[in-house]
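Re: 9MR structure - here you go.
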Amino acid sequence: MRRTRTRAATLAAATALLAGLAVAPAAHAVTAHHHAETTLGQLAERTGRYFGSAVDNPELTDTDYANLLGKEFDATTPGNGMKWYATEPQRGVFDFTAGDEIVNYARAKGLKVRGHTLLWHSQLPSWLSSGAWTADELRSILKNHITQVVKHYKGKVFAWDVANEITNEDGTYRENIFYKTIGPSYIADALRWAHAADPKAKLYLNDYNVEGTGAKSDAYYTLIKQLKADRVPIDGFGMQAHLALQYGFPYQMRQNIQRFADLGVDVAITELDIRVILPSDATKLAQQADWYGRVTNACLAVRRCVGITVWGYSDRHSWIPSVFPGEGAALPWDENLVHKPAYDAIRNALTAAGS
Ligand code: 9MR
């Protein structure tokens, strides 16, 4: 919206003057209106992308937080609600309460939902992680889990992180329970089972420390190339992007996104946050803003980078302080739901790309 005054605004200002009121508040209201009109989600949509935020179930009871999330974003990912411990707490007994709660919230707010995650080494129910399974048993457990969960959310989840964090930093396969019991074939099978359960859902592999070029992203490049050659249904690569100022910006991020796109898959930034060593200050927040802008621009530069999701949007709710004591302030809004410089950097990048 341009800031030129409409005839109606001029008339309103004149009326206000006549009524003895100051004009300044009216000008302020125009600015506020301008912000209310274009959300990050809408700006992303103008570029053919989405801009999402993760949400964890308990956060839905934080009304201000849930309302702002629903207004500003056009996509969401459950932080925990669709993980194995939540969806199949006992063998063959499924519980979709937490995931459904987020899907229903998302529907009410008009957000689309990324599903996270069908298979991960972490947050498994103890019946599964402590069991001694043969390869055949575990294969059928995995197949049933994926089939039930993906069928339940068919048409409600547009993309799934099918396999999460399946490689080590050096690019070798992570020795999770599935790898140790079944071997590496579990990855292609998981993708095939998910595809059979919902042929329209976009199926992703997802990991951290893969935003730049290096041994770990090289391993995914080789794996996805092979999966494509074998005609395994793989649609996308998720780069979590849990970044930290003290470790430097990912090396050649745009080129890295591009090389995956060139394999014929989509790329998504799935769990973006950029933590700082506390206390944060203006210098750190400025650098953080620069990085948020760079990540956004790296995605915007590649046609097949389809969207960005922040892992929560406010420092009020973040996984970081409990996992990395002394670090945090990683998100574009502060604890009071006030924008930080990072918000403006994202907004500016999206605006420039969409105009
Ligand atoms: O945000 C999630 C947090 O609430 C959980 O305690 C944590 C458990 O490991 O998982 C967090 O989300 C993770 C995501 O599922 C996978 N990538 C790393 C995320 C941060 O740990």
